[in-house]
Amino acid sequence: MSVARLALASVVRDEAARFGYTCRSLAELTGMSSATVNRCMMGKRDISEYELGAFGAAFGWGGETRDRVRRLWVTSVTGAGEVQHRDEVLACLHAMTRESVVVAPWVLPARLRTSGYHCLLTGRLTRLEDRRPWEAGQHTTVYLTRQAVTMPSALPAHQRAEQFAYLGTLAGSEHVRLRFLPGQITGVHGLEPFEVVRLRNATRYVRLDHHGVTTLLDNPGDVRAYRKVLDYLDSVATPSSEWRNWLREH
């Protein structure tokens, strides 16, 4: 089952709850059977184009919402679509994200970099999608190692100061929570960067980034395994209140 299908099902469930529809009442409104509506809402079957249109009419989807949901639908039913349209899927999922936890053992995630730091790492100017704003209602926790913050070692002093100042600003944000990990810690060395995401309806998935390829995991066992890693990291991380002291050590 693709993450895109789960996300689409979560949209239908959330909209039904918002309007106070039951499976039976939504079935009567759309002309589907209650069983079909239930399976669509639980992500147990692909939603057809006709059914998507019927849900859209029932929920009054228009404009940006209609376009976003349609992109999710396309990627959920087109086999390799989740690879071909990965950026669109991730953008749609981001719009429905309530909480995410990022583990960055090697380098700072793009959203935590200043323009100078980003350009030094990638040789490219910061893209708009890399600098998307921290949206209201979304909370992000980021676990950082000293290697992630201080690399590359050739970072000029003024850019290093600028980067630290930016991290300090983020640490004071109500939407961002930075957690700092010790330099040597079992389970972090060699660990792939990953992100555990919770959507607005509490659906969770894991996003892995490896050699420029993004993989989305929605299997409950996989999600539990990565959440156990987070529990361990939380037990050894420097408290958020001590971020100033942690940064001052560099």
Explained architecture:
This protein is an alpha/beta fold and 250 residues long. The protein contains 12 helices and 6 strands. 50% of the residues lie in helices and 15% in strands. Strands 3-2-1-4-5-6 form a 6-stranded mixed beta sheet, with helices on both faces. The radius of gyration is 21 Å and the shape is elongated. The relative contact order is 0.12. The model has no long low-confidence stretch (mean pLDDT 77).
Index terms:
single chain, 250 residues, 434 Repressor (Amino-terminal Domain), Endonuclease, Chain A, 15% strand, elongated, DNA binding, DUF5753 domain-containing protein
Indicate the percent of residues in helices: 40-55%
Radius of gyration: 21 Å
Shape: elongated
Strands side by side in the biggest sheet: 3-2-1-4-5-6
DSSP strand count? 6
**Separation of the first and last Cα atoms:** 45 Å
- The overall pLDDT, averaged over residues, is 77
Q: Count the helices. How many?
A: 12
Class per helix and strand makeup: alpha/beta
At the fold tier of CATH, the topology name of the largest domain is: Endonuclease, Chain A
